[in-house]
Structures are given as structure tokens and as C-alpha cells.
Write a structure and sequence with these properties.
single chain; 69 residues; mainly alpha
């Protein structure tokens, strides 16, 4: 396994782990502060927008690498 391949997988797994940890933190924060359903939904939507950004970045990289651009 080349260093670049290892770095790619390490970033994906590391970011995935951090996203899961952030979900736990946001959910605990909402629960401890009694944010209610609406407040919890807003907090989780904000977190998921960041996750979607990471997913879109990966998709664009994949598309561009297969098209040779």
C-alpha cells in the first residue's frame, strides 16, 4: 500500500469517526439543554450539512478522476 493510498483511507476513516463523535456530542448537547424536538432537529441539520459537504467533495473527486480532468 502506497503512502498516498494510506493517507486517503486514513482521512476517510478519520473524518468518518469524527463525524460520528460530533453527532454524539450534538445529540448530548441538545438533550442536556432540553432543546426539544425542533432545537435538536436544527442542530442535527447543521451537522448533516457539513457531512453532505464532505460527501459531495468525495463525489466530485471521484467523478473528476474517472473523467481524466
Amino acid at each position: 500500500m502506497a503512502e498516498a493510498e494510506f493517507a486517503t483511507w486514513a482521512v476517510r476513516l478519520g473524518v468518518g469517526g469524527l463525524i460520528a463523535f460530533m453527532f454524539f456530542i450534538v445529540f448530548q448537547l441538545a438533550h442536556e439543554n432540553k432543546a426539544g424536538k425542533y432545537g435538536t432537529m436544527i442542530l442535527l441539520i447543521a451537522l448533516m450539512m457539513g457531512v453532505m459537504g464532505f460527501g459531495i467533495k468525495l463525489a466530485v473527486q471521484l467523478i473528476l478522476s474517472h473523467n481524466g480532468l
